């Protein structure tokens, strides 16, 4: 599945949703206006005494503006209120549904298995592991992903999902939810909730006006007020009817869009895990458990389109159903399914613990290198061995947002073979800070001591001691595995307080600047870590698309390609060849910036500025830039660690997550990794 096409499709769906919303509001406006015209005309005729029919004045500017203002306040205000309420992102949705955050120290083996599966999927996808919530009061099999972006996304599952599914089935469900995270479905889901809430608010106001304004005790208090009471009741009835008519069409739109997305996410999960029996088995078990995929929370109606299975039990062919029929989904994956659902029993916690131990033992025996040279889009051999094989940019771009089962296998083995000291550190906020500081410690004794003094002064002696304790363990880690470790730490660092994060951010900056230069890895770490955490702690909105043509970002793209070319080779002639090969792939619109820039013109500051602009490019433009960047990296026939890390940082900064690039024995020259940008 093409990640960039999916992103563009999600953007178009959002635009279409807003268009339909505007049409619904326009129809409601016309209906409400005509209702008021009728009410006022009837009142005028009564006042006139009925001696002769009065002509209807269809155009009343004052009334027109009044109706427009009232509807704008009610619908727009209701939608805005809901959107603001949803600014908490996925965690806010999970809390409203009754979810409880799963902590790493949970004694429940089912919850530990869930966390492990989510971490595996996150590393394989090239994103940070999202927080995980369990809906403890929900006995059905269901799950959801919620958030505006991967940065504030969460994964939630019903308790029944943990108790009834095997590990492979759970992996299929989580892969399905990661598809929604990567393809931009979550933001659409939240916007849909906000827009529909405004329409619903009109219906709610109509209900209360009808109940208390027209036929309540005040409306019946005297015979003289019966006429006005009936008019108020008519207005309330109009609000109620028009609100529910708008809501009717809104739900139809929600259902139609959601059903198609579920089929796509199922297909992505099969591609992700290469195990159709996993997700098919989970769907079959939904049909076999008493609670199916039901969610009893009062918020289930609002969030029904976000779940893995139908959260509301309705008729099979209900037009409001947000999910395709269960049998149809299963047969789309397993055509041989006979329609009979199995008898389902809870899994044994003891068995889950034994399975986890055996899997970890097998992974430790194989080691991370067991997935030889894991790379992108099937390029396992090209990146993992010493041969100089070409890197196909088409295959790399195809892997963005579409990891494979090999990536999942690598991430599982990585997690199982991480030294316990490192694994425990990156999963706890205090030690995760120290681990990130340790990765930035310089080899030069003088600079290293200066960095440690900075930590003692700004973070305190305990942080310095923890950093020194972790440094030897992290120095033994293969350089190509540092980015997944940073991703794990990023998930833990979300739990810092705002004040703690600001201190951490400042310390990172000081450690990087201690040696008066910025290496490739230091720049990559700042982009991958600080940029994403800034979005979380500073509540930055998702970037909007401003650049739809290559010509508007040609200079910024040239900065990136020049930097990659200079990282790939210290020889000016070789760097120029790499730049020429990559720049040609930018295509029309890049002709005015066809010369490689000097080292000063593609400095760290310039790269940072360029990435800030390019994140606002349209998906099709980002795709061309990544293709060109890959050509530049592979121009010399090999991929070193520094090149791979910078390429991932560029892709990540463009919100295009690349699965892990494990370079194996590439980059054996130590100096390659510390070459300044």
Explained architecture:
This protein is mostly helical and 677 residues long. The chain folds into 3 domains: 1-365, no CATH class; 419-537, no CATH class; 550-673. 62% of the residues lie in helices and 2% in strands. The chain has a 4-stranded mixed β-sheet, with helices on both faces. A hairpin with a 7-residue loop joins strand 3 and strand 4 (154-158). Helix 2 packs across helix 7, helix 4 crosses helix 14 (405-417) and helix 9 (276-288) runs antiparallel to helix 10 (326-333).
Helix and strand layout, with pairings?
Blueprint: H1 3-48, H2 61-85, H3 90-96, E1 99-101, H4 109-125, E2 132-135, E3 143-146, E4 154-158, H5 159-164, H6 167-182, H7 185-214, H8 226-273, H9 276-288, H10 326-333, H11 349-366, H12 380-384, H13 393-399, H14 405-417, H15 420-425, H16 429-439, H17 445-458, H18 461-475, H19 482-493, H20 498-513, H21 520-537, H22 554-568, H23 572-583, H24 604-614, H25 619-634, H26 641-653, H27 670-673
Parallel strand pairs: 2-4
Antiparallel strand pairs: 1-2, 3-4
What's the number of domains? 3
- Report the principal-axis shape: globular
Question: What is the β-strand count?
Answer: 4
| Class derived from helix and strand content | mainly alpha
Q: Could you describe the largest sheet, including whether it forms a barrel? A: 4 strands, mixed
Radius of gyration: 29 Å
> How large is the share of residues in beta strands?
under 5%
Counted by DSSP, the helix tally is 27
Descriptors for this entry?
globular, 677 residues
């Amino acid at each position: 599945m093409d990640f960039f096409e999916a992103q563009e499709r999600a953007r178009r769906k959002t635009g279409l949703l807003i268009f339909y919303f505007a049409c619904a509001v326009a129809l409601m406006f016309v209906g409400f206006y005509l209702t008021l015209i009728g009410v006022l005309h009837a009142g005028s005729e009564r006042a006139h005494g009925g001696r002769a029919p009065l002509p209807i004045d269809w155009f009343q500017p004052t009334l027109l503006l009044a109706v427009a203002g009232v509807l704008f306040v009610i619908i727009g205000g209701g939608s805005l209120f809901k959107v603001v309420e949803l600014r908490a992102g996925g965690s806010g949705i999970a809390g409203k549904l009754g979810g409880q955050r799963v902590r790493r120290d949970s004694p429940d083996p089912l919850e530990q298995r869930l966390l492990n599966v989510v971490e595996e999927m996150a590393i394989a996808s090239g994103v940070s592991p999202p927080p995980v919530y369990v809906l403890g009061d929900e006995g059905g099999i269901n799950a959801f992903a919620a958030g505006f972006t991967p940065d504030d996304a969460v994964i939630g599952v019903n308790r029944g999902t943990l108790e009834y599914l095997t590990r492979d089935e759970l992996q299929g469900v989580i892969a399905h939810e990661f598809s929604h995270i990567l393809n931009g479905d979550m933001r659409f889901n939240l916007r849909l909730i906000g827009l529909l809430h405004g329409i619903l608010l009109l219906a709610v106001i109509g209900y209360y006006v009808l109940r208390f304004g027209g036929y309540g005790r005040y409306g019946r208090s005297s015979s003289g007020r019966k006429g006005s009471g009936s008019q108020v009741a008519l207005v309330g009835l109009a609000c109620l009817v028009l609100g529910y008519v708008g809501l009717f069409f809104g739900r139809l739109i929600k259902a139609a869009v959601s059903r198609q997305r579920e089929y796509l996410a199922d297909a992505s999960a099969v591609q992700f895990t290469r195990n159709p029996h996993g997700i098919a088995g989970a769907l079959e078990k939904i049909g076999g458990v008493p609670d199916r995929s039901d969610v009893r929370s009062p918020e289930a109606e609002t969030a029904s389109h976000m779940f893995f299975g139908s959260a509301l039990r309705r008729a099979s062919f209900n037009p409001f159903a947000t999910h395709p029929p269960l049998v149809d989904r299963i047969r789309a994956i397993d055509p041989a399914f006979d329609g009979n659902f199995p008898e389902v029993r809870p899994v044994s916690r003891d068995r889950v613990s034994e399975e986890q131990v055996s899997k970890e033992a097998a992974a430790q025996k194989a080691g991370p290198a067991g997935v030889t040279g894991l790379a992108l889009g099937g390029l396992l051999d090209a990146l993992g061995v010493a041969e100089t094989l070409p890197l196909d940019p088409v295959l790399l771009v195809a892997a963005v947002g579409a990891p494979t089962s090999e990536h999942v296998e690598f991430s599982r083995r990585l997690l199982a073979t991480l030294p316990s000291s490192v694994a425990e550190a990156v999963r706890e906020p205090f030690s995760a800070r120290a681990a990130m500081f340790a990765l930035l410690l310089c080899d030069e004794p003088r600079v290293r001591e200066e960095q440690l003094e900075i930590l003692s002064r700004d973070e305190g002696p305990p942080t310095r001691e923890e950093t020194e304790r972790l440094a030897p363990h992290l120095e033994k880690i293969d350089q190509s595995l540092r980015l997944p470790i940073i991703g794990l730490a990023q998930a833990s660092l979300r739990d810092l307080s705002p004040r703690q994060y600001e201190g951490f951010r400042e310390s990172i900056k000081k450690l990087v600047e201690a040696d008066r230069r910025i290496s490739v890895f230091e720049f990559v770490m700042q982009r991958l870590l600080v940029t994403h955490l800034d979005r979380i702690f500073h509540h930055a909105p998702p970037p909007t698309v401003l650049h739809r043509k290559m010509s508007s970002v040609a200079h910024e793209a040239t900065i990136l390609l020049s930097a990659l070319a200079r990282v790939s080779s210290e020889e000016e002639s070789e760097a120029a060849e790499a730049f020429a090969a990559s720049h040609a792939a930018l295509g029309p619109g890049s002709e005015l910036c066809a010369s490689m820039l000097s080292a000063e013109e593609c400095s760290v500051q310039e790269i940072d500025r360029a990435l800030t602009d390019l994140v606002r490019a349209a998906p099709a433009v980002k795709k061309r830039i990544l293709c060109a960047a890959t050509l530049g990296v592979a121009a010399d026939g090999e991929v070193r660690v520094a090149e791979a890390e910078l390429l991932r940082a560029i892709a990540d900064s463009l919100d295009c997550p690349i699965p892990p690039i494990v370079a194996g024995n590439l980059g054996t020259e130590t100096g390659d990794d510390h070459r300044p940008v």
